[in-house]
Amino acid sequence: MPLTMAKRTPHPYPLQSGIVYGPIRSRRLGNSLGINLLPSSYKLCSSNCVYCQYGWTYNEAEDGAVERIPAAAEILAAADEAMGRTNLGIDYITLAGNGEPTLHPQLTEIVVGLKMLRDRWMPHAKVGILSDSTTVHRPKVRKALIALDEKYMKLDAGDEAMFLAVNKPMGKVDWRQMIDGLKALPDVTLQSLLIMGAVDNTQPDHIDRWIETVAYIHPKAVQIYPIDRPPADSGIIKVPLARLKEIGSLLTQRTGIEALVFG
Questions:
Q1: CA-to-CA distance for 67 and 117, rounded, in angstroms?
Q2: Alpha helical stretches, state H, 41-125
Q3: Alpha-carbon Rg of the chain, whole angstroms?
Q4: Is the peptide bond preceding residue 23 cis, with omega within 30 degrees of 0?
Q5: Where are the beta strands (DSSP E) in the chain?
Q6: Paired strand residues for 131
Q7: CATH number of the domain that residue 171 is part of
Q8: Whole-model pTM?
Q9: What 3-state DSSP class applies to 237?
């Protein structure tokens, strides 16, 4: 899958302007210190999700200029400085930022380094990642993911057709390979963003397939949540909290897997 980037056009929500951002109060992770492994001037992602707060993903930068990905040493130096000066209680150090963090070629080195910095500055915090799951089958990525305290991996669909409609991968992604990769990943938490409108992954027949897929992967928990900021596709509508809770209850009733619902 090739690396991809977004044109330098306005985004529904501003890109992160540097390596470290926050702390921010996350509805799912508490007090989170974000680590952006990617460029600050464009979105670099393996997906083109219809709900993305950073807008659409494109194959070429508008002017042909490509900002480099920050090196591991640069990322760790910025994290060290930020952790050393913050006096706020941090629950998570979260790898996320302007796209898909597992695309960074030095991911394992970064994870190991961040855990060492965590032990020095904020030993109670967990080091986690927000990933679109498209690279979970890659050996180097799996090595880095396994080293993390928490792995929040995307699963918005129960079948390939809905995956293509919602997440729109930027290269060829083998659906079965991705699902099997998630199943083989230990201590994984799935994150499922449910939407209505131009694309709808909340219909009963699809929810049935989604529950079957979640049961096959058998994560330790599933986080279920709606859009919180303007999406790339203006036709996407926020799912009511009551419907999210209904879906979460159905998942737990059928599988015994904990559903964590966020409004």
A1: 26
A2: 72-85, 107-121
A3: 18
A4: yes
A5: 20-26, 30-36, 92-96, 126-131, 150-154, 188-193, 195-197, 221-225, 236-238, 258-261
A6: 153
A7: 3.20.20.70
A8: 0.91
A9: strand
Residue 84: inside a domain? yes
pLDDT > 90: percent of the chain: 79
Q: Is residue 140 part of a domain?
A: yes
**Residues 235-245 pLDDT 10s:** 999 999 999 99
What is the tally of structural domains in the chain? 1
Q: Which residues span the domain enclosing 158?
A: 20-190
**pLDDT at residue 166 is higher than 80:** yes
Residue closest to 237 by CA, chosen among 202, 192, 190: 202
The count of C-alpha atoms lying within 13 angstroms of the C-alpha of 231, restricted to the half-sphere facing its C-beta, is 22
Instruction: Determine the Cα–Cα distance for residues 130 and 95; give it in Å rounded to an integer.
Output: 6
Work out the pLDDT band at 163, boundaries 50, 70, 90.
Answer: very high
Q: Which amino acid is at 131?
A: S
3-state DSSP helix/strand/coil percent for the chain, to nearest 5? 35, 20, 45
- Identify the weakest region by mean pLDDT among 44-48, 57-61, 73-77: 57-61
The Cα 114–Cα 107 span in angstroms is 10
Two structure tokens written together for 173: 């992604």
